[in-house]
Amino acid sequence: MWIVDEKKWDEDVRDRTVSLDLAEKWKDFQKGLLNDEIKTQSLMLLKCLEIGKNTKLQEESEDKSKILAKRKEREEELNRWLYLKRKPLPALPKKQNTLQKLGSRIKTKIPKTSIGRKQKTSSPIIYCSNRKQMIESDKACEKEGDKKELPNLPNPRERKPTRILWRNQRSEVKRQKQEFLDKIKSLEEKISCQEEENKQLKASTPQELIKEINELKTQLERLQQQNSQLIAQVEVKETKKRP
After folding, report:
1. pLDDT class for 45, splitting at 50, 70, 90?
2. How high is the pLDDT of residue 232?
3. Would you kindly state where each structural domain of the chain is located, as residue ranges?
4. How confident is the model at residue 99 (pLDDT cuts 50, 70, 90)?
5. I need a labelling partner for 40 at 20 to 30 A (CA). Which of 27, 87, 128, 174 fits?
6. C-beta atoms surrounding 45 within 10 Å
7. Is 50 exceeded by the pLDDT of residue 123?
8. Which UniProt keywords apply (predicted)?
9. How many other C-beta atoms lie within 10 A of the C-beta of residue 51?
10. Distance between CA atoms of 22 and 26, rounded to whole angstroms?
11. Which has the higher per-residue pLDDT, 215 or 108?
12. pLDDT reported for residue 91
């Protein structure tokens, strides 16, 4: 026997924990195959799942948008719960497109002849069914002078020159790097020497400057005194000339 608490279902439907056999019993109830006791319990379950009096009062106070959201959540949870006992459908065979079917049937193959193989020279490869046609086309191109040829590409087996070039490039990079580092060191030494000279100048200049300033001050004072004396003499002479 299985028992359902009404309070738990009314409080929060999301927190319910019911066995997975309920789905089968629900189907049997729909068909009318259950006993009276099980029928009563299933009716109780239906009442719990439906919106009761308490939920109705809460929903009336809330907005309509919240009510619809809650209803959708409950419906989704019920669908998930019923989906657990659902048997998966058999996988359908994959359908191929018409082009894929045609591609699987038709297989284009290039004939492995002397014409079809890749040539060692740099001339372009031409796939022709007839050799005569190929020779005639080559002759016509030579007469017109419009024969196009690919550039002579390096052979991948000959790796020695490339290795030598790589080594030379690396040595040049190292040499340039060393020169740059030497220049940086020389500049750092010059900067340090200049800083020391500046420090010495700063240490020596203040006392000499103070002496020069004091001398200039004394000279100014003397000049001011001379000016005042001259002004007094001029004033005396002007007073004597007046009648």
Report:
1. low
2. 80
3. 6-83
4. low
5. 87
6. 19
7. no
8. Coiled coil
9. 15
10. 6
11. 215
12. 63
CA distance 156 to 43: 84
Higher-scoring residue by pLDDT: 181, 120: 181
- CA distances in angstroms from 170 to 41, 163, 175, listed in the order given: 87, 11, 9
- What is the predicted pLDDT for the residue at 14? 43
Tokens of 29: 């109830």
Neighbours of 210 (CB within 10 A): 10
**Greatest extent of the chain over all pairs of C-alpha atoms, in Å:** 156
Whether residue 188 is predicted with pLDDT greater than 70 in this model: the reply is: yes
Closest among 123, 122, 145, 121 to 134, alpha carbons compared: 123
The alpha helices in the chain, defined as continuous H runs, are 6-11, 21-31, 36-49, 53-61, 64-83, 98-105, 131-144, 160-241
Phi, psi of 42 (to 5 degrees): -65, -35
Q: Which whole number is the average pLDDT over 3-9?
A: 51
CA distance 48 to 9: 5
Question: Which residues, in sequence order, are CB contacts of 10 under 8 Å at separation 6+?
Answer: 48, 52, 54, 55
Q: Whole-angstrom Cα distance, residue 64 to residue 72?
A: 12
Cα 210 from Cα 205, distance rounded (Å): 9
Crossing angle, helix 64-83 and helix 53-61, to 10 degrees?
140
CA distance 187 to 216: 41
Mean pLDDT of 35-44: 62
At residue 143, what are phi and psi to the nearest 5 degrees?
-65, -45
